[in-house]
Each structure stands twice: as structure tokens, then as C-alpha cells.
Amino acid sequence: MTVYVFGHRNPDTDAICSALAYANLLQQTSRPDAVAACCGPPNQRTEFALRKAKISTPKMFMDVRPEIANVCKRNRITAFDDEVFFEVYKRLQEHNLRAMPVLSRQDELVGILSLLDLLELVFHADDHDSIAARTVKSSLDKVCTALGGEFQHPIETDRREELMVMVGAMSSERFTERLHKFSADRLMVVSGDRPTIQLPALEHGVRCLVVTGGYSLSPGLLHLAAANGVTVLTSPHDTATTVLRIKSARSIESAINSNFLAISSKQLVEEARRSVDRAPQFMFPVLDDAGKLFGVLSKSDLLNPPKTQIILVDHNELAQAVPGAEEAEILEVLDHHRLGGSLRSAQPIRFINEPVGSTCTLVAKQFRANGVLPSPGIALCMASGIISDTLYLRSPTTTDVDREVLDWLRGLVNVNLDDFARDFFEIGSALRTCSPDQVVQEDCKEFTEHGHRFSISQIEEIGFDLFWKRKDELQTALDHLAARRGLDFSALMVTDIASNGSLLLMSCEPAGWEDISYPRIDRHLYELAGVVSRKKQLLPLFARLLEP
Whose C-alpha in 108, 121, 272, 450 is 20 to 30 A from the C-alpha of 34? Predict the structure, then answer.
């Protein structure tokens, strides 16, 4: 089963690079099925880093709640709408199925067929109508196969037609009288070794004469059959068994249920369960986006569906995790932030949380602990996360461990890290390239402190010139963000990489904000000299101000 390694929502470089690097390590050690994932697109700086590292972006998921595709059966045991009873019944028995989808020869889903409907076709179909009960829609080839018989004289045996079965179990006079009441080209006469029955049937020019009991037609009668265009078929069974087997060659067409419920492979399990529980079907076809059969689903498949397995990196709060994480099986957490939120697990999990400047530092330590040397691309990926989160080792969150790990990675990459860091920070100014809504949602994290729900977004810029030009529209975007998410307030931290200081823009100030120790320079705007870390500097400040 695949395990997905996720960074937080609205991912920054450290979140995406730590997910990529840790998934790579797991693939080489304990989990070859590990896949790096993200729940938001990478920003321009992250894209730059991945291009330099020659690494593809992670697979994007916006929800990890299980979909029908995760629980349905993919082995396609199906019937075709031109097949007959014995073919489909044998398949149902072989696979111990109660129902199966029915496809056209063009691979289009036309309906479903249950075992009960199939049995009705042979044993109880049209009991009230003697003509219909004796009519078999099939081909003589199918009839011959059902009987395990042989043709003595075949004529167009592959043609699909409606045949009416007449059993020659009466006197020849009565048989001949009845024979002439029906159109000869539809009649299939079943008879044992009785020339008095066979002769009038052949003279009448019936479509097919079935000789039962393992007998064959005499040379003279066979010559008559050829002269009158009658197909002759021999059956190794007695007459009663032969008739039953002929009925088993009936086309399944009339038993197909075309009024059925199909499920999309992309539908969430919890949504599908509500409609499936009310439906009378045993089996539900599952369709892909193109409307083609993807698999089949039974009600029992929804009783205890498997949970998506995920590993969290660069966060440990469910509010910051990919949507649906609360319903997933969280196997590990690798993080460098405070403990918070409502993370729970049914079983003990591996939880690594250390006070370092970057999650990529922790991932690099895991490479070293496992004796695995990262490739130059993965090494640059981890170096990018460290450079981004520590502002190239200038942030107050930087530790000696970050410095030592980055120095180790420096010897593994194929670029000059000083030049790379300069280019990294010059690229991707959010204020230059993004809409106001995109700016306030970039690297946005939600928190809960002392009953207050709020968000803090952070962007890094070189200077504040662009901020002053866009302050008013950013203020409006923050207001909309807080209202849309039902937050008490939202904040945007704009960090100047050159001066190692930040501006803090608020949607509104909650009670107690007047105790802030940083100067207010405009409405909802504060100057935070020397503050560059959301985790280590700004969030503790918020917690103190919000404390009742």
C-alpha cells in the first residue's frame, strides 16, 4: 500500500523539499512504495530549486479521504451482451460471484446481470407463455457448444436468431399436425432415434434437427436434410437433458438490468456509502472519468475501507495538514515546530520533533543515520529547504545542527550554494508576481491560541518598496481570507531578507493587542525590527498577547 509523504498546506520550500527528500530515503530503505505529495502548488522559489536539482514536483492531492478507486475491486470479471446463459453462468460460478457488469463488444457498460436474473432466464422465463418459454435467442454454434454435440450437417451456424424448440415426444401424426402450425425457418426439432419424427421435420425444412441420445441421422435422412437445407446436430444427452441445455444457450440480453446505479471511481467513500446503502443491487459498476468500467464495488467493500497512509513533514497540526488527514492513518511525523492541534493516533507512531531551523535538516540527519548518501539532486533539494527556512543561516531559528548539516550537503551538491542562495532569494517575489489573494495565502498556516483561531502568512522580499505600493489591496485580501475561513483575524508577515526585519499587516487586532511592544506605523500595520521567524518569534508573541 502506498504511503504518501506530505508537507503542510500552502507549502513553502522546506515543506516540499523535505517531503521529496524523505520519500526518497524511504524508497531506499523501508518503504519502496513511498510517494512525495503536496496539497498546494509550489511557489516560484521552490520551482527554481527543483529545476536546479532536476527533481519533479510532488504529486498533488487536495484531499486524502479514501475514494472508491481505493476500495473497489479492479479485476474485471464481466459478461458481454451477446453471450448466452451457460457462458456467463460458468463464469459466475468460477469466480463465486452473485452479479457482474455487462459490456458491449465496444467496451461500453450496458447493464448488470445478477445470478438470480440469469437463472430466471432458463428456469422460469415466460412460464405463462408457452411459445415464449420454448423460444431460444441464440446461434446454432452456441447451442452446439452447450450440448457438447457435433454438427452432421451445418448451415450458417454462427447466425444469431430466434429458435422455437419443439420436442418430438408424441405420435408422428400429432407431431406432423403441430409442425405445420409454425414457420419452418424458426423451428428446432429435438428427437431421439425416431425416423417417424425426423422425416416429417426434414420434409418441412425446419431450421435445425437435434438428434439426442448420441445417435446420428441415417445416410438417407442426412441426404434429405442437405436437400432441404436443414442443419443437423447430434447431442450426447437424452432428450430431457438436451432441451434443458438448449435453453442454457439463450442469450442473456433479456436478463440484463439496464436500470442500475454506477459509482464514479473519484467519489469519496463516505459520499458513495449513502447511495449504495439504499440501492437493492449486489454489485455496483465503478466508472472512470471517461465513463469506462474501472472496477466493481460491493456493499461489504465499504464496511471497513482501508485508510490512506500518510507521513507528515514540516508540521504536526491537523489544521495545517492535507484535508482528510484526520481520517487517514498517520505513520510518522518529522517536524521542527511547536506541538499543537489535535493530532491523534490509534497506534504508537514515530514522532521526531527537534528545535532546528528546517525540517530538511532533520531529513538529512535521517540519511546520515541510515548510512545513505543522497544524490546531488536530493542533496540540493534539502539544502534549498534549509536555505529557505533559515534565510541562509541568518534567521534566529538557525542552530549549529543546521550549519553543520548544510556544510555536509555543500560537499554533495553540484552547484555553488552561495550563488544558488542569492539567485533563490532574488527569484519569485510574491508581491511582484501574485494577486493579493495569492500573496496572503502563500505559506499560510492556521493556529489556535487561547480560544482564538487565526492565520499567519509569511513572504520574503528584498526591501519593502513593493509592499507599500500594494498595502491597501493586501489589507482587503486579508479581510476576505479571515471571513472566508471563519477566523478571528489573519496576519501577513512580510520579511525583508536584506535588513532581517519584518512588517506585520493584520486584518484586525483582537483584544489585548495594545500590549504589543512593537511600533504601530499605520492602521493594522506594525514594524517588527529583527523579527524574521514566524515559528520562534511571531507565534510566541501572538500567544502572549492573546493570553487572557
Answer: 272
